[in-house]
């Protein structure tokens, strides 16, 4: 079939990660070739191993996920052919590598496990019937996953700035110092004025209190009549 699988072109969170990637779900591609008993698989292979991949003759020969490191390919996401019809309500996006439980898988059942390396990978859809393959799409273009940065590749030294940036930073720092000094000076003057005002008010109160309660010296009093010499 002429259809080529692809990663969605629209903005999508986690479209490609270190272990997964998203695919557009093909619609109306297998209608003329599939019946109700058929299933559609996704074949995942390393980009340099597509030429040697051979479609399995039956479901029993489907390469499992755990053989990817040695066989360089596997098949996953088995779905009924009705899932890919034009009117199917299925999600428009398929995610490859989303099943973390596949790491410990001990059976031969198909599994959609995390991809073990950045790849690149190529994928195709394969229509399987009771008697083997019936139709398939073309291989996708190579899909390269994200790489995690090694701690040894991170430069601990700060990035050197140009002379213009250094001058600009120095000017901004100087302006900040001048502004801080002005604010502190204004606050200091206000506090000092408030303290002086309180001292003046207290002194005036003391002086007024002194004048109000001042008692003049007593005048000599006449002696009683029996006390004259």
Model description:
The protein has 229 residues and is of the alpha+beta class. It has a domain at 21-148. It is built from two helices and six strands, in the order ββαββββα. A hairpin with a 2-residue loop joins strand 5 and strand 6. The model is unreliable at 199-215 (pLDDT under 50). One of its GO terms (cellular component) is membrane. The chain crosses the membrane at residues 165-187. This is UPK3B protein.
Which labels suit this protein?
229 residues; alpha+beta; two-stranded antiparallel ribbon; 6 strands
What's this entry about, in short?
The protein is of the alpha+beta class. The protein contains two helices and six strands. A four-stranded antiparallel β-sheet has the order 3-2-5-6.
């Amino acid at each position: 079939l002429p259809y080529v699988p692809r990663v969605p072109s629209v903005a999508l969170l986690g479209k490609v990660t270190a272990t997964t990637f998203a695919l557009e779900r093909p619609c109306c591609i297998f209608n003329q070739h599939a019946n109700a008993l058929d299933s559609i698989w996704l074949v995942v292979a390393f980009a340099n191993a597509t030429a040697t991949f051979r479609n399995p003759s039956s479901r029993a020969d489907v390469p499992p996920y755990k053989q990817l490191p040695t066989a360089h390919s596997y098949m996953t996401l088995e779905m009924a052919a009705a899932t890919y019809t034009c009117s199917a309500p299925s999600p428009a996006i398929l995610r490859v590598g989303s099943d973390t439980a596949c790491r410990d898988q001990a059976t031969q059942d198909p599994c959609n496990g995390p991809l073990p390396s950045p790849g690149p990978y190529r994928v195709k859809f394969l229509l399987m019937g009771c008697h083997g393959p019936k139709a398939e799409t073309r291989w996708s273009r190579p899909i390269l996953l994200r790489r995690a940065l090694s701690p040894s590749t991170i430069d601990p030294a700060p990035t050197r700035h140009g002379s213009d940036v250094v001058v600009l930073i120095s000017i901004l720092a100087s302006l900040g110092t001048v502004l801080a000094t002005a604010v502190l000076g204004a606050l200091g003057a206000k506090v000092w004025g408030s303290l002086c005002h309180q001292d003046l008010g207290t002194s005036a109160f003391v002086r007024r209190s002194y004048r109000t309660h001042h008692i003049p010296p007593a005048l000599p009093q006449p002696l009683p009549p029996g006390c004259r010499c």
